[in-house]
Amino acid sequence: MTDRSKRLLRLAVVAALAGSAAGCDTLSNMNPFGEKKTPLAGERRPVPQVAPNPPDTVPQPLSALPAPSAASFA
């Protein structure tokens, strides 16, 4: 393959990928069977919070601790 044909092949692949990515939104709305989706019956309620709130302070790594002095080991 020549450099020009490699370049054209790369361009064709990029164009195909870009075209398929652009069509994803429009394809999801198409329904070939003409069926309408109906929402499930029942009451809608918010999901309760399961996890606790995060702490106000963030733990620091051990490398953030001050270096011990030689006097502390004596």
Which key phrases capture this entry?
single chain; about 70 residues; mainly alpha
Overall description:
The chain has helices at residues 3-22, 24-28. With 74 residues, the chain is mainly α. The model has no long low-confidence stretch (mean pLDDT 76).
Note the topology:
Blueprint: H1 3-22, H2 24-28
How are helices and strands ordered from N to C?
A: HH
The average pLDDT score comes to 76
How many individual helices? 2
- What's the Cα radius of gyration? 30 Å
Tell me the distance between the termini: 74 Å
Give the structure's gist in a few sentences.
Helices cover 34% and strands 0% of the residues. The chain is built from two helices and no strands.
